[in-house]
Amino acid sequence: GDPNCEWEDMLTTLRAGLSMGLSGVPFWSCDNGGFAAMTGHLTPELWIRWSQLSMFTSRPRLHGTEDVRRVPWTFGDRAVENFRKYAKLRYRLLPYIYSQAYKATKTGLPMMRAMVLEFQDDPNTYSMEDQYMFGDALLVAPVYTPDNRRTVYLPEGRWFDYWTDEEYEGPSTIKVQPPLEVLPLYIKGNSIIPMGPDMSYVGEKPFDPITLDVRLHSEAECTIYDDDQIVQCRARRKKDRVVVDVSASKRTHVVKLNRTGILASVKLNGVEIPRKASAVELEASEHGWYFDPTFVVYAKFKGLGGRCELVLRA
């Protein structure tokens, strides 16, 4: 607790969080930017990088000594825009975060997982202390030096850059130099990440629809825990078909299938649903699908769940 406001203290704080998780404490956060401002140099750049890390803890915390206010606008417009970007992403990720938090209460698995905890058969992870898994699907690699450089280790399997969707095959080590606004963030292959709508605060609008953000090469599954329902989701790819099963639910779901081929049709419970000409038209419909030119398919269905079958064009 109460870290100084230096770049090395950001890394020290991350080590502490991963150690806490390995010690059986599932929920952990830190003073964003450090606590004791008089014993460090809290620059806008350090505050921005630290706030990116904080958004991928169990709960971000803006707190410190009174001589430096911890609100974003203290550090300028660039800090405000960065904070808004990652706060909005966190709000969209709340169905995923809430589900991972529920799992933590039942299993003891921490929200922030040291790499060795998830990849115990990989010796490369045994002493790794500067990156981590946030839940089952997201690999977070904070930048903790002012030169914006770091290396990222990707364990065995397929990984996708969250921002560019570039694909990597692990195990591999990559060197990155992201701009200040970009946190290195990777999605584990064969993952389904439930996401809510864009919002600025909880309660601004219902968590509906739920978007199932799918990265798939064989099979993937996830469980969405909500206050009033538990929804099971499973996706499978076989040759020219992708089948997504969603258990009974009160909400509308949008299957977002990334890196797919051109579709011939989409069926819901065996019945073809119409193709929409645009994302706006799909948003206004209860059922339908839309093919984005970036080879992303959106298939939407409302209520009760069901089997969504996407047929690729030969």
Which helices and strands appear, and what pairs or packs with what?
Elements: H1 7-22, H2 44-54, H3 77-92, H4 94-107, E1 112-114, H5 115-118, E2 132-134, E3 138-140, E4 150-161, E5 167-176, E6 185-188, E7 191-195, E8 210-215, E9 219-225, E10 230-238, E11 241-246, E12 252-257, E13 263-268, E14 271-272, H6 279-283, E15 288-292, E16 296-302, E17 306-312
Parallel strand pairs: 8-12
Antiparallel strand pairs: 1-2, 2-3, 3-6, 4-5, 4-6, 7-8, 9-10, 10-11, 11-17, 12-16, 13-14, 13-17, 15-16
Helix pairs in contact: 2-3
Fraction of residues in β-strands: 25-35%
The helix count comes to: 6
In which order are the strands of the major sheet placed?
Answer: 1-2-3-6-4-5
Helix percent band: 10-25%
Shape descriptor reads globular
E-strand count: 17
Class from secondary-structure proportions: alpha+beta
Mean pLDDT: 92
Main sheet: strands, sense, barrel: 6 strands, antiparallel
Order of helices and strands: HHHHEHEEEEEEEEEEEEEHEEE
Radius of gyration, taken over Cα atoms and rounded to an integer in Å: 20 Å
Q: Return residue spans where pLDDT drops below 50 for at least 5 consecutive residues.
A: none
Distance between the termini: 58 Å
